[in-house]
Amino acid sequence: MTAKIRSRLTDWTTVLPVIAVVVLAATWGRHLPGPLIVVVAALLAGAVLAAVHHAEVVAHKVGEPLGSLVLAVAVTVIEVGLIVTLMISGGDKTQALARDTVFAAVMITCNGILGLSLLLGALRRRVAVFNPEGTGGALATVATLATLSMVVPTFTSRPGPQFSPAQLTFAAVASLALYGLFVMVQTGRHRDYFLPVTQEGSIIPEDADGDGHADPPSTRTALASLALLVVALVAVVGDAKTISPAIEAGVEAANLPQAFVGVVIALLVLLPETLAAARAARRDRVQISLNLALGSAMASIGLTIPAIALASIWLEGPLLLGLGGTQMTLLALTAVTGVLTVVPGRATVLQGGVHLVLLAAFVFLAASP
């Protein structure tokens, strides 16, 4: 028993997140030289892998779809904290930070993670199968949240793509209500809609996960992994912010728009969910991958908008939430394509490729608007 505890304490998934947080505390707010930036970036990558491991341990303990929800909410809560912190300290140049970050998260999750999951699932079984009822409900919720929070502000009577205080309050309350309702449905009376299915459409038993872990971990192990998951995610988001000045300098040197910094940081922050979704898809659990993708998009909007609405009490300057014409076109195309992908409950490599091309279009147009 002592040897097992010692082995667990010295395991890289335990040690590396702690080291990453210690380095984060030592480097926070400082200008880093090139070699140290490389070290922080390496620790960030290791923290991402550790986060995926601990998220899977927790998910195996609590079962699906609650397991997917744990990682999505944990990442989003820390991401929201990062956004609010940057907006408070960033001045005028961060007026559109929330919009740019949330929109990037939606495009990355609904096209990148979703497309990659469908592609990997289809490559494994020729056709990726999932539950259209649960996935369709999640997609409808994401589309509604995105439209209310990021499209409507462009067309209100208030000058600029922004809400009035009353409109922002309504959007925040509506976002929280929709997100809360979805969580109730996903984990309650319609839980079966979010469980993996076989090629014939029947639900896969939870103990037949095929991942080499026949028995769920103990409660003590799961709680330890939950704590280490939070530590790893703090390291991921914090280290992303630490190296953001280097990212900003690189973006400026490449003559890219300032908004592209948010895209890069969103890509880094969403790495744990991307890797977890890819691993689930490779194990023929495409529904779990889609839960992660759409759940992350939903949490990004449903938690960020209320937090920004609250922070706007002491934030100076306007809060720009409305999307531009190009962004709205990409969002509409993503929603329409997503509906056509989800309705059959089955997808081939074509649908996965279409969503990945949409992500590529978003990244390209963000770099060259």
From TrEMBL:
Transmembrane segments: 12-29, 35-54, 66-90, 102-123, 135-156, 168-185, 221-238, 258-278, 290-314, 320-342, 349-367
GO CC annotation: plasma membrane
Pfam families: Na_Ca_ex
Location in the cell: Membrane
Membrane topology: Multi-pass membrane protein
Keyword field contains Nucleus: no
Keywords: Membrane, Transmembrane, Transmembrane helix
Domain Sodium/calcium exchanger membrane region: from-to ranges: 36-187, 225-365
MF-aspect GO terms: potassium:proton antiporter activity; sodium:proton antiporter activity
InterPro entries: Alkaline_pH_Ca-Antiporter, NaCa_Exmemb
Main location (coarse class): membrane
Protein name: Ca2+:H+ antiporter
Lineage, highest ranks first: Bacteria, Bacillati, Actinomycetota, Actinomycetes, Micromonosporales
